[in-house]
Amino acid sequence: MESKINLHFERLRLKELSEPVLFLWAIGGFFCTAAARSEGAVLFSAYSAFLLQFSAKEMSAAFLGSMAAFLLLPQSAPALLGAVGALAFFAAWFYFVGTKKTLRQQSVILGLIFLASHLLLAFWFKSSLIWPPINACFVAIAYALLNFSQKNIQNRRQSFAEMTKEELLCPFLLMLMLILGTSSLAIDGINLQHILFHALLLLAVSNIGAASAIMTGLFLGLTGTLSSGENAALIGYLALCAGVGSLGVDYGKLGIFGAYAAGSLLLGWIISDWYGLIYLAGEILAAGVIFFAVPPLKNRPAPLTKRRPRENGYAKIAQAVGVLSRPRPELIGAKDNSPAICTRIYLRVCHQCANKEYCWQKNPEATKNALDEAYQLALSLGPQTAPLSENLKHICLHSETLREAITAQIMLDQKDEKHSKELSQMKEACNYELSLISKALRELNYTSANNYEHALRSFLKSQGLNVQYARLTLHDGAFTAEIVLKECIEECEQTVSALLGSYFKQEYFVYKRECSWQNQYCRIFLRPAEKYFLSVHAVQRRAKGENLCGDIWRHFKINEHLECVLLIDGMGIGEKAYRQSSYAADLLEEMLKSSISTADALNLTNNHLLLAGLEESFISLELLLVDTFDFSAEFYKACGSISYFLHENKVQKLTAQALPLGILAEGRAQKQLLRFKCGDRLLILSDGMAENGVNWVEILPALPCSGAEAGEEILRLSPESADDQSAILLDIWSIKQNGS
Fold this sequence. Notes:
Elements: H1 2-36, H2 39-52, H3 59-72, H4 77-96, H5 103-124, H6 132-149, H7 165-180, E1 186-187, E2 190-191, H8 192-206, H9 210-225, H10 230-245, H11 252-271, H12 274-293, H13 313-324, H14 338-350, H15 364-381, H16 399-462, E3 467-475, E4 478-485, H17 492-504, E5 508-515, E6 522-528, E7 530-541, E8 551-559, E9 562-570, H18 574-593, H19 598-611, E10 619-627, E11 632-638, E12 643-647, E13 650-654, E14 670-675, E15 681-685, H20 687-690, H21 696-702, H22 707-717, E16 725-736
Antiparallel strand pairs: 1-2, 3-4, 4-6, 5-6, 7-16, 8-9, 9-10, 10-11, 11-14, 12-13, 12-15, 15-16
Helix pairs in contact: 1-2, 1-3, 2-3, 2-6, 3-4, 4-5, 4-6, 5-9, 6-7, 6-9, 7-8, 8-10, 8-12, 9-10, 10-11, 11-12, 13-16, 14-15, 14-16, 15-16, 18-19
C-alpha cells in the first residue's frame, strides 16, 4: 500500500513539474506563429498540442496549437489544411477514446477521418497543397495515441512516468526522418538525408507493433502521394514500404530489412528508371549498415499480429510456475559442502595451470585443503574483505584468480538461497491458482457430460422415442447411461441398446430395467458390453559396469479417460543419465497432470534442460497419450529409436526426425496419430535395445500374449550392451461385461 502511495505522489510531482514547461512551450508556439507566419511555426504549434494533451487542460490543451495555426494563418493554404486536419483528428480521438472500441476499430475510423479531411480540403483548393512535415507531425501524434490505446487507457491523465521507451522515442523518430525529407544534406553528390531516412524508418518499424506500423505506413503513403516534389514522392513509397516491412517484426531484424528492401526496390522500379533503382539500392544498403549497428530497444511491445492468449492463459502460466518452482537439487544445485566447492575450484584453476609441475603445492590434496581454509575464512569475514590464506600467498601466479573464484562461489551460494526462498514464495502464491484450475476442469467435465446428454436426447427423439431424459456418467473412460421413456414400447431393451450402440460406436447392454405396471414410464440402465483397457509392461537392463539405468519410463493417468506412457533416455549412461531422465520425467508428469498442453509441457521441459546446469543436458523422448474412450492416441518422438506397432497383424515402423530436447531454444517433437484396436501391440525401445541387431519386425508378432512373459523374452533375445537398455510393451485388451 505504501509503495502505491509513493508512486502516486511521484506521478503528481512529475505532473506539477511538466505542466508549466508544456504551457510555456505552447505560449512559445503562439508567439512563433504570430511573428513568423510560416509553416515551420505551424509544425511547432501542432506538436505543442500533442504534448499539452497530457496536461491538466486536457481537451482544450489539445486544440491549442491547432487553433493558433487556424486563426493566425488564414492566408496560408498548407497551414490551413494542416490545422483543419489536426482539428478533425483530435476531435475524433477525444470522441472515440472514451468508448470501448478496439484498437483496430479506432485505427481505421481515425485514419479515415484524418485522410478525408485532407482530401476534401485538397480538392477545395484544386491542388495538392499538403506539406509533408505537417502531415508527419500528425501521423506521429496518431501513432503515439494509438500506441497508448494498447494499454486500454481509461484515464486521460496519464503521466510520462508510465510511458515506455518506444512511446517516447518513435514519434520523435518519425518527426526527425520526415523533417530530413525536406532538408538538403549532400556530400559529393550522395544524398545523405535519403540514407538517414531509410535507417530511421527501419528503426522506427523495428520498435513498434505491426498493426501500428502498418497504420503509420498507410498514413504516410497516402498523404505523400497527394504531395508534390521529389521528397514528397520519396515519403510516399518508402512509408508504404514501412508498412510492408513491419510484417517482418516477428522474424527479427533480418526479416524487417528484407521485406522493407524488397518493397522499396519494387516500388522504386515502378516509379523510376534503372539508374534510379541502382541509386536506391545503394541507399538501402547504406541504411542497412546503420540499422544493424543500432540495437533495438529491449522492451519493444509484442507485435499485434501474434495470436492472442486464451482467457485461461494466466492461470496456466501460474500453474506452470507452481510446477517448475519446486527445487531440483539433482541439477540446479543444492548447496555443496566446502570440500566439493574447493575441488571444483581446483579443477577449474589449478588443474589447468601451466606451471602446476613447478608449483610449491605439488600435492593436490594439500592444495584443496589450502583452498578450503581460504573458503572458510571468506565465509566468516565476507568474500570481499577476507585475505587469502597464508598457504596461498606464496609464489602462486593465480592467487587473484583463486580469490575471485572463491568469492564468486560464495555469492552464487547466497544467490541460490535467495532464489530458493523466492521460488517457495512463488509456489505458495500459485496454490490458489491451481485450486481454481482444478475447479474449472471439474466444471468442464460436467459441461461435457451435459452436452453429450443433450445431443443423445435429441438423437433418440429423432429416432421416434418419447424420451423424458437421458443421464450419462463417465466412468473408466466410457459412459454408462440411464434412459427414461415416457411410455414403454415393445422390445424397449433391444431398441434402446441398439440406438445407444450406434450413437457411441460400441456395443451396449441393459443391466437393469424398471417399468411401471401401467406402462406409464420405462427406466433403462445401460453400460458398454465390452470394456477396453491398456496393459503396459516394461523391462530394463543397465549398461555394463553401471549401478543405475539411465533410462526412465512412466505410466500414469492424466484424467478419467486419458493415459500417458513415456520413455526418456538421458545423455550418457549410469547415474548422470538417470538424474537427467528422472528430472525431465518428473517435470513432464506434473505438467501433464496439471492440464498443461503437451506442446507447452515439452517446450518448458526443453527450456529447463537448457538452463539446468553448466554442462550440456539433453534427452531423447517418446511419449504416448491414449484416449481410452475411443483408443485414439498421439505419439510424440524427440529423437529416439524406431518403435514397432503391431496393428491388424501387420508391423509398422514408427520413426522421427526431431532432435533431442535440450539442444535447441525451442523444444519440438514429431507427432503421429494412432488408432488402436483390440489385440494391437506397441513396442517402444531405447537406443541400447534397438541397436543390437535383433529383427523386431519378425519377433514382435511371435512374442507371448502375457506382457510379463513377453518382457522376459525381449531381454533374453537382446544381448547386453554398453548402453542402457529399455523396452515398453503396450497391449490393448477387452473384457466382456455382459456375463459372456
